[in-house]
Specification:
heterodimer, A: 66 residues, alpha+beta, four-stranded mixed beta sheet, 2 helices, 32% helix, B: 386 residues, Jelly Rolls, 2 domains, six-stranded antiparallel beta sheet, globular
């Protein structure tokens, strides 16, 4: 499970619950690559407040990823 | 008058395996941590990967499988005597008697960065041959499998024999340079070296032949995963240009550690498992005026960057993953007070910026956290593996 961290920063990050990793949105980062694969295959993504991102909101989010 | 002789020989062979080469550190071995000396993550402790994604074990060596929890891995597992000239090995122990399905795979791998094998010319008409050598030890006997590939469209399965159980066997394999396939020469994945601890019938191919089929093992190989308690140990792993194995390129510890740190670095001192509570090798960050809270939702410190950590070695990529830990309880994303070491509240060590040379942290707790000793302290890991 993942949680978005503050998306107003210059660099955007996601928090991985399993180990507390702070993963930047960066294509060469293999953790980021895995994050994208996980989310596309149904892993849960929460916003910074802990609310699940689903449906059209998730689709829109995926479209904005690098 | 001094006289000088001449030694005429094709090569000089070491009694412990391989052709003797000049006693210099040449970095001719493209494998990093081939002697299994560096274990920044686990400090010699056993790990049993519970997922199917890549799990890094000792430095630069990872496990990838289609089934969870089938192997335990440990530096010097089973405490057998390593081959002469070595003090460490990486051990895998099967956790069950698993019947391998046709599409199953169990791989102990090292991914070599493309920049470190660019001179091989693989995928071109000038492709150079390489020789792969290592020591292997198993409770099982027979033919074992490995594959060398680009993890994309070109694979070289190979069978090698361990004829005697629980005895170190020196293996050498000369591999003709592939003139086809897409082989990265960037900071991406260049060559994958994979020891197959099990592979299904659809994933094994003819030994000693380059193919575009994605084989992850060799036809006729022993599946270590199929025997409960079976062991498989390796050390002295070397990949070098040429058609002969030379003696192991044993590099100074500091050099090997630095090579590993291009891909993974931690503040924990060697010998401490990541994370360890109250490990004294912490990062101490001065934050200025002790009378101020260093952070605070209502104060000047709100969302303020509180410190910067410079790596000892620049990382492979521009933006590595970072995990921050508190000093006292090893809580992720949390900083500790610099004088007492008491942990602050959640989200007091959130990464603000990650770069190849370091990272900054800031407070994102939403509330004031007063420090002491003019400072905070954290532990960290940085991950830039392939």
């Amino acid at each position: 499970m993942y949680k978005l961290l503050d998306q107003t920063k210059l660099q955007k990050f996601v928090w991985r619950d399993s180990d507390g990793a702070q993963i930047p949105f960066y294509l060469d980062n293999t953790d980021y690559q895995q994050f994208v694969r996980d989310i596309k295959s149904g892993a849960q993504l929460n916003d910074a407040e802990g609310n699940p991102i689903t449906g059209s909101a998730l689709t829109t989010f995926l479209e904005t990823l690098p | 008058m001094a006289t000088y002789g001449q030694l005429n020989a094709d090569n000089l062979t070491s009694s412990t395996g391989g052709v003797i080469s000049p006693n210099i550190t040449s970095l001719r071995n493209r494998i990093i941590n081939g002697a299994m000396v560096i274990d920044q993550r686990n400090a010699g402790a056993s790990v049993t990967p519970s997922g199917t994604g890549k799990s890094y074990l000792i430095d630069r060596w990872c496990y990838l499988s289609s089934q969870t929890s089938k192997f335990a891995f440990q530096q010097n597992a089973g405490s057998v005597t390593p081959p002469n000239g070595f003090i460490n090995y990486l051990g895998a122990t099967s956790q069950s008697a698993y019947t391998v399905g046709s599409s199953d795979y169990f791989l102990l791998s090292q991914y070599i960065e493309g920049l470190n094998v660019a001179d091989l010319g693989w995928g071109t008409s000038n492709a150079k041959s390489v020789t792969f050598s290592f020591w292997a030890y198993s409770s099982l006997t027979g033919n074992f499998g490995l594959t060398i590939n680009n993890n994309n469209n070109y694979y070289y399965p190979y069978l090698y024999s361990i004829p005697v159980a629980n005895t170190w066997t020196y293996i050498t394999v000369t591999i003709p340079g592939p003139t086809s396939g897409t082989w990265l020469t960037t900071n991406g994945q260049g060559i994958a070296i994979q020891f197959s601890l099990g592979a299904g019938s659809s994933l094994v191919g003819t030994s000693g032949t380059w193919t575009s089929t994605g084989y992850l093992g060799a036809t006729g190989q022993v599946n270590v995963v199929g025997t409960n308690g079976a062991t498989f140990y390796i050390t002295g792993v070397q990949l070098e240009v040429g058609t002969q194995a030379t003696s192991f390129d044993y590099r100074p510890y500091g050099t090997e550690l630095a090579l590993c740190q291009r891909y993974y670095e931690t503040s924990y001192y060697p010998g401490y498992v990541v994370p360890t509570n109250a490990c004294p090798n912490y990062v101490h960050i001065s934050i200025g005026n002790a009378s101020q809270s260093y952070v605070g939702a209502a104060g000047a410190g709100n969302a303020q960057t509180t410190g910067y950590v410079y790596y000892r070695v620049n990382k492979r990529i521009q933006a590595p993953t970072v995990v921050t830990y508190s000093y006292s309880a090893s809580t992720t994303g949390v900083a500790s007070k610099g004088w007492t070491g008491a942990d602050l509240s959640a989200s007091t060590a959130i990464v603000n910026n990650t770069a190849s040379f370091g990272f900054s942290i800031y407070n994102n707790s939403g509330s004031t956290a007063t420090v002491d000793g003019f400072s905070i302290m954290i532990h960290y890991t940085s991950y830039a593996e392939l």
